[in-house]
Each structure stands twice: as structure tokens, then as C-alpha cells.
Amino acid sequence: MRLKWYIVLGLIAILTISATTISLGSKENAPGKDGSAPGQEGSTPGKDGSAPGQEGSTPGKDGSAPGKCNKDSDGDGTNDCNDGCPNDPNKVAPGQCGCGVADIDSDGDGIDDCNDGCPNDPKKANPGTCGCGIPDEDDNGRPNC
User: Fold this and answer.
1) For position 132, what pLDDT does the model report?
2) Which of 26, 75, 83, 88 would bridge 99 by S-S if both were Cys, CB 3.0 to 4.6 A apart?
């Protein structure tokens, strides 16, 4: 029993000494808030690639204030610095048709309308000889137009 008591007192004594040592320590010997060496706070480069002690001084890709990315030109809820189509409220990436043009396939032929010569003809992607909506050849191999 005495051994257990001694261990408990030993731990209390160690904790008391540790706490006293920490509280008596000098701030000059403590690591910097940015993780730098003691007495060298501000010597670690910023997360945004800025100079040491200057984090947030690099301008945003969208021209916003340093450390900010808050401009949303098209009002789609995605800030311009993360928006592949910053002036198209319906897109955040160009897709097949680019910004400002919807990626839709009206006739269901697997070709988006922006690349489909016959966007309303599911059997043709190009007008061909007879135009959209009319087959170029029938069963006998002759033009239908």
C-alpha cells in the first residue's frame, strides 16, 4: 500500500514541478505561434506562398483583395477564383460546349447540340445531301431528295 501511495505522490510532485517549470519559462524561448523557432516568429512562409509574416498579402486569382476570394461575377454561388465560367450563371466548368452555351442534346443522339449539325434529327449529326430530317439514301442506295 505504501508503494502505491508513493507513486501517486511522485506523480503529483512531477506534475507540480512540470507546471511550475512551464509557468516560469521565458516567452523568448517558446516556439512562435506560426511554428517558427523560438525568437523567430514570422520567419515561416505563409500558406498562400507569401513572404514570412505576410500571409494573406498575395492577391486572389480573381483580383480580389489579398487573402480573399469573394467575387462572384455571375451570381451562381461559386467564387470567380474557383469558377471555370465566371460570367455564366449556369455553369462552373466549360463542358463540351464552352461557357455561355448549354451542354444539351435535344435529339438524344449522343452529340451535344453545339456540335450537332442536325440538333433535332436523332438519325443525323450532319445535314448531308438532303438536309436534316430527311434520310440521304433509301433501301436502293439512291438519294431521297
Assistant:
1) 96
2) 88
